[in-house]
Amino acid sequence: MRSAAPGCSSFLQQALPRLGRIAGRNVLNPRVTPDPHLLERKIIHCDCDCFYAAVEMRDDPTLVGKPLAVGGRADQRGVVATCNYEARRFGIHSAMSTAQAIKRCPQLIVLPPAMDKYRIASGQILAIYRDYTDLVEPLSLDEAYLDVTGALQCNGSATLIAQEIRQRIKESVGITASAGIAPNKFIAKIASDWNKPDGQFVVRPQDVDAFVAALPVDKLYGVGRVTAAKLRRLGAETCGDLRAWSLLDLQQHFGKFGTRLQSLCRGIDLREVSPSRERKSVSVEETYVTDLPDLPACRQALPELLQRLQARIARARAGDNINKLFVKIRFDDFQRTTAECSGTMLDEAVFYRLLETGFQRRGRPVRLLGAGIGVDEARAQQDPQSGLFDQQL
Ligand code: DCP
Ligand code: MG
Fold this sequence. Notes:
Layout: H1 8-14, H2 16-20, E1 21-22, E2 25-26, E3 43-48, H3 51-59, E4 68-71, E5 80-83, H4 85-88, H5 98-104, E6 109-111, H6 115-130, E7 136-140, E8 143-147, H7 158-172, E9 177-182, H8 185-192, E10 200-202, H9 208-213, H10 225-233, H11 239-242, H12 247-254, H13 257-264, E11 281-292, H14 295-316, E12 322-331, E13 336-342, H15 348-360, E14 366-375, H16 377-382, E15 391-392
Parallel strand pairs: 4-6, 9-10, 11-15
Antiparallel strand pairs: 1-2, 3-8, 3-9, 4-5, 7-8, 11-14, 12-13, 12-14
Helix pairs in contact: 6-7, 12-13, 14-15
2'-deoxycytidine-5'-triphosphate (DCP) binds next to strand 3, helix 3 and strand 5.
């Protein structure tokens, strides 16, 4: 079932026409032949370290060195939004219940989130990025991609630009950030985690092949824990293992996503840094360990999703800018569908209707459910405080 696959450096240099045109079709993107410049970009992924907690430590230096979390109250079923690195040593992490966090670390200091402060810091950081390029794509308040391919600063060196940006964030905002520098978004994002906190990591084009070959499959974007488990069951632990698979094998097991897997495991990601990606939607989703067998099971799963969506919308202050409601479904055969309708309010009954419409399009067991809202971009952009991002929790 397996066919030999070429290594990535040779792949990048020679085989794009081959990869891009299997059976006369461009498999990376069926409509467009990839522009070679997309393979030679300088992308930085910048991510602040323990962002909310870092802002709190900046504003109260007596907190520095003590385990600190920012989040909801333990007696109100609150969860940890983030915690500093001292707290992480106790095994505390984002999305853990605050009650459990305090059990792990009784001396933990828990502060309520102060979103206005974080938004101001986020705005300052964005302004620094925009000194280097217009191609800035924020992913959340503390994370962004920058395409600095044409930048003239620092002799055009993306490594030095990242260093300078991090230094400026430290000096003018008073917190630290980490960065990944690579030829594409997917690798830059992984690299920014490599020397965290307060560090950076560069993957040069000639190092992409080896870097990606050693990556565990669950590092690929779009591969959650369920898909990762399936890949491991099929014998693929690393991206290197996955390269031995033919496109047909990948598509048979993973549907359309198989095509993306084939590129990603070779370190190829042609997504552009897109500044317009800001403020489009707010959504949540869940991949279920056991598929939801039928519509009643999906209906049962919906309230939990809607509760998370509501919290996410409140956090993003998007409640006044809703223009669309949608439900996303991925079936057990990896086919996806989104049912949507226009609307300006979170209406539970509408989500149930959308779920039914979407489910009936295939009527098969469901592996993933998502719910979200579209956001009126024009209105949201008039409101600099709204801080919306096309991001899932
Ligand atoms: N956040 C949240 N709930 C989550 C995850 C994150 O409210 N489940 C908030 C708090 C974080 C901020 O978003 O400070 C940025 O998220 P990151 O995932 O970048 O986490 P941190 O910046 O806190 O830590 P790291 O140093 O790992 O980037
Ligand atoms: Mg961060």
